[in-house]
Amino acid sequence: AQKITQTQPGMFVQEKEAVTLDCTYDTSDQSYGLFWYKQPSSGEMIFLIYQGSYDEQNATEGRYSLNFQKARKSANLVISASQLGDSAMYFCAMREIMIYNQGGKLIFGQGTELSVKP
Amino acid sequence: ETGVTQSPTHLIKTRGQQVTLRCSSQSGHNTVSWYQQALGQGPQFIFQYYREEENGRGNFPPRFSGLQFPNYSSELNVNALELDDSALYLCASSFGLAVYNEQFFGPGTRLTVL
Predict the structure, then answer these.
(1) For residue A5, which residues of chain B lie inside 8 Å, CB to CB?
(2) CA of A51 vs chain B CAs: smallest distance (Å)
(3) Tell me: the pLDDT tens digits for A46-76?
(4) Out of B35, B42, B106, closest to residue A44 by CB
(5) Are A44 and B107 within 8 A, CB to CB?
(6) Side-chain half-sphere of A47: how many Cα atoms within 13 Å?
(7) Looking at beta carbons, which residues of chain A come within 8 Å of B3?
């Protein structure tokens, strides 16, 4: 069964510093997609970054980058130059692959609560 | 272009009642997924609709049912509410079923069952 593990329930980072949020995954599929979402206290899930299992380069989106290590089954999120507005819950998720290579459900981890200190 | 909207924002029901939650997908999106997020947990997949057909379902009992309409908006119905159904219900829409397609989430409906 597919599973996402986030081992850091909470993290603190000083404003303007970089922080890494850990994510490991378990799947027997060769083809899959990995996502990171940010969830502020308002509840809405905000898409941050995507990494496909066949992508050779690590994904980057502005201050967000994904450190993808396929052999270790890890997909850590790196946030550079943290800002106070980055304080939120962060979820790692994997997209299930159904028949005909269709994307199915997202499987989420437990989340990491990031607090950015001024 | 409007994003994903959900209604109502908050809802309080009593055990045994029935509830309907609504989701309007983002313009042009034909796929809607529903998730349940209990407090302090990650979201759990309920089901997914693609072009008005259910094409995936999570481990939820049959009292959780849904619909997708021709305009691709969607409803989640929960019958015989239980206390454990108290959660944030999130709707997400996307265009098509490609794995890499970003799913856009709505703000959620917070359901409290007393």
Answers:
(1) none
(2) 8
(3) 999 999 988 889 999 999 999 999 999 999 9
(4) B106
(5) yes
(6) 19
(7) none
Q: Please give the mean pLDDT across all residues of chain B.
A: 93
Residue showing tokens 């269709």: A102
Residues in chain A: 118
Could you report the per-residue pLDDT of B5-49, keeping only the tens digit for each?
Answer: 999 999 999 999 999 999 999 888 999 999 999 999 999 999 999
Question: CA–CA distance from B91 to each of A9, A55, B29, B37 (Å)?
Answer: 25, 28, 12, 11
- DSSP per-residue letters across A29-90: -SS-EEEEEEE-TT---EEEEEEETT--SPPEETTEEEEEETTTTEEEEEE-S--GGG-EEE
Counting one residue from chain A and one from chain B, the pairs whose CB atoms sit within 8 A come to 72
